[in-house]
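Run log // design_07
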């Protein structure tokens, strides 16, 4: 009776997991083994092609280019940008007044919680060549999204996602024992020495967790499509955008399914690296 009762409590959660996670994963695996398309004869009767789609992906220069751009996007906007700016904001706000701290936190969180379509429209308006805010300020006529597409989406993602890192590091900084900070101050340590020798050692577990989460989110982020649609050409076509263009624009669902599964394996690899690093840190 106890087992059935426990199953009754967990059944809704298991159902949601099966519907929204397990079934889509199995469906992606299936279509990745076929020549399934959005239209045409293959849409009605897809044929089994085995590992042909995966072999095609491994030799597809466009896919490898999108993967390289995605790695640059993750490193630039998540690992470096959001991590650094999130920590700097959290550390600086520790000494700020209550009103100023709440105001800065509200502005940073606002960038994070606004709908992606709204934020993308605001950035397009700001970076527009003819009537953009940035060009009006600088007095130039640069087509930022055309001439510097990757830099534009990296800066955009740093601005958009720094809020999470700021909140995580803000909470992590409260775990630093005040007695350690006071001891460092009495020992004559400067601000940089205190940060290096006292604060950062306490934050290492949080840095690892934050880096993993924002890296996975950024790796699978589709929002840059709203800014550049992967263009011009393929200069900003990160993997999520490439999958969309392949599946929806090109109609090649089978090939896009194979790529999606490869992306899933890459994400699992990142998670395993995190688990390995956690074990090494704990030992």
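design_07 sequence
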């Amino acid at each position: 009776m106890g087992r059935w009762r426990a199953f009754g409590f967990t059944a809704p959660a298991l159902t949601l997991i099966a519907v929204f996670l397990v079934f889509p994963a199995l469906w992606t695996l299936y279509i990745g083994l076929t020549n399934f398309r959005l239209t045409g004869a293959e849409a009605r009767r897809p044929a089994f092609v085995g590992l042909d789609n995966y072999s095609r992906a491994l030799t597809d220069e466009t896919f490898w280019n999108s993967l390289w751009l995605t790695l640059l996007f993750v490193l630039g906007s998540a690992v470096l940008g959001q991590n650094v700016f999130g920590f700097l904001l959290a550390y600086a706000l520790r000494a700020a007044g209550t009103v100023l701290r709440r105001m800065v936190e509200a502005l940073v969180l606002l960038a994070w919680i606004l709908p992606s379509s709204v934020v993308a429209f605001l950035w397009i308006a700001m970076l527009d060549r003819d009537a953009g805010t940035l060009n009006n300020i600088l007095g130039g006529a640069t087509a930022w999204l055309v001439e510097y597409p990757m830099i534009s989406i990296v800066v955009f993602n740093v601005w958009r996602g720094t809020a999470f890192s700021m909140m995580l590091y803000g909470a992590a900084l409260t775990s630093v024992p005040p007695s350690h900070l006071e001891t460092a101050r009495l020992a004559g340590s400067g601000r940089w020495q205190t940060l290096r020798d006292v604060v950062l050692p306490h934050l290492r577990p949080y840095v690892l967790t934050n880096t993993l989460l924002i890296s996975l989110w950024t790796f699978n982020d589709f929002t840059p499509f709203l800014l550049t649609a992967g263009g011009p050409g393929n200069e900003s076509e990160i993997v999520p955008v490439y999958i969309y263009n392949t599946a929806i624009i090109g109609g090649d669902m089978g090939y896009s399914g194979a790529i999606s599964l490869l992306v899933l394996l890459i994400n699992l690899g990142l998670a395993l690296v995190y688990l390995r690093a956690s074990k090494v840190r704990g030992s």
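Residues 93 and 104 are 8 Å apart (CA to CA).
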